[in-house]
């Protein structure tokens, strides 16, 4: 391997401002920096976007989206949930009216069958995987559906190594087999769902033999999973970025939800759907309304009563239309209709697909303010940089994990230098822009949220501490709801069952970036255990597991290209090129390569990825780029 290593980022301790675009950032006082921000944002009304933070607290996300809607008068607020969880929220909401996973982690330990689809949970979600291991020890069978034979698959009874981008054909073939074998739960289907006849016609062409040709998975393995899932008394279907990070991510999610509706594996203890979030508060950011289409408590922005409720509480008029999501905001930057951005705790210059284009768009802004704990690549382009407290160690508040569990976060240390709490900064800016917001502490923010969101009303700080966290919905302060959602679907009374859950009628749509003779290899991306996102936080810490970034190939492809471990090669897509060392991994099959985005200062993987995105959720197709690999010429050695 090369001697290159991850960049270490210094902690931000003082405000920084740029006097002109051709000048470097310089240290400033808080008053000078906040005055500059207030002036910049004041000029940006009608052309403003807010990037909130999936690693910060619920309370911060609540205040950030309130700042966008009240101070700046826009629903243009979003966060990195757009890059991962948004298709899950959209798919679950379309089916059930709620955008959260339906089960608790405890149920994973008590189920009979686990299906991990597009999820290397052992490395990417190690805490969740401990619950998976308990489930296996308690007798659960596990199947893994993933293009790579990951370390998670080592624990599985069956591994279905499908071709990238063929999740819908796989799901449809499983659904067809369940119907043809007489294993569908018709009692549940007739009582609680809609659109079954249309779904049956949709999946009918997807025979096991056709699915084998398209997915690359043996028909016998598809049949085995179909029967195991349908026959299980209780089953959990879990997924993550392997399903959502596609140009049709929401459709992928709907295809998996269909299987739960077909078998009745939802709305019961031990049976459910579990999308996994890769950051500590992705779910909470959406719950708090830091998304362009939802107000806090997952209330639809288009709902007049919801707008009236929040508008009255905030003394404002909320715009009666959806704002721009993160993907759309970047498009608006290029069009010139979005001129200013307030970015809190996000690093899109490194984390967005097609990163060169992303950085050009950020540089085109009239005004960019970044509020963060490190001087990230995004912050380097900012007009003003504000040093914030670290949400996981220097802040009071709450976060919400993948099982909808809200948990307390407590400050353990004092922020360094002049770094300030995010909420204090936002309230100071709101005051400079004409809004006098006074919160005594994070609990005061939380209590305001509780007064407006029925799902959180029963979650006082005192109860959260007493129960070591509570799952939403929690409308009452004197009782707890079941750990699973949508039990209403099993009620005998139609009025109690409420809205039927519709089958999603989704079609197979192959990856946008097609492989061909010029770009013959399919690149997919993911995470490793030892590192975190774009490396700004984890890169400065040593790990015995870390070996830096590489282009991972199967042994056959390494031999075909005549490359060995540690040899640097040029990796190119239709968008750009990087140089990366080779690693050989037997988990991969011929024609499939793997990289991460953990070391962008070393190897900027997102130069290669494609910005094609889901039209419903806006999530980019990180999982399916076409690339080629070229050996580098041997350097000429000049001897003295």
Tell me what you see in this structure.
33% of the residues lie in helices and 17% in strands. It contains 24 helices and 27 strands. The strands form seven sheets. Strands 2-1-15-14-13-3-4 form a seven-stranded mixed sheet. The protein has a six-stranded mixed sheet with strand order 21-23-22-27-20-24. Strands 7-6-5-9-10 form a five-stranded parallel sheet, with helices on both faces. Helix 19 (377-380) links the parallel strand 14 and strand 15. Helix 1 packs across helix 20.
Comma- or semicolon-separated keywords:
640 residues, six-stranded mixed beta sheet, single chain, seven-stranded mixed beta sheet
The span between the termini is 27 Å
Spans with pLDDT under 50 lasting ≥5 residues?
Answer: 636-640
Q: Major sheet: size, sense and barrel closure?
A: 7 strands, mixed
Approximate strand percentage: 15-25%
Main-sheet strand order equals 2-1-15-14-13-3-4
Helix count equals: 24
**Helical amount among residues, as a percent range?**
25-40%
Mean pLDDT reading? 94
Per the principal axes of the C-alpha atoms, what is the gross shape? Answer: globular
Q: Which structural category do the helix and sheet elements fall into?
A: alpha/beta
Count of DSSP E strands? 27
Report the radius of gyration as a whole number of Å.
Answer: 24 Å
Summarize the structure.
With 640 residues, the protein is of the alpha/beta class.
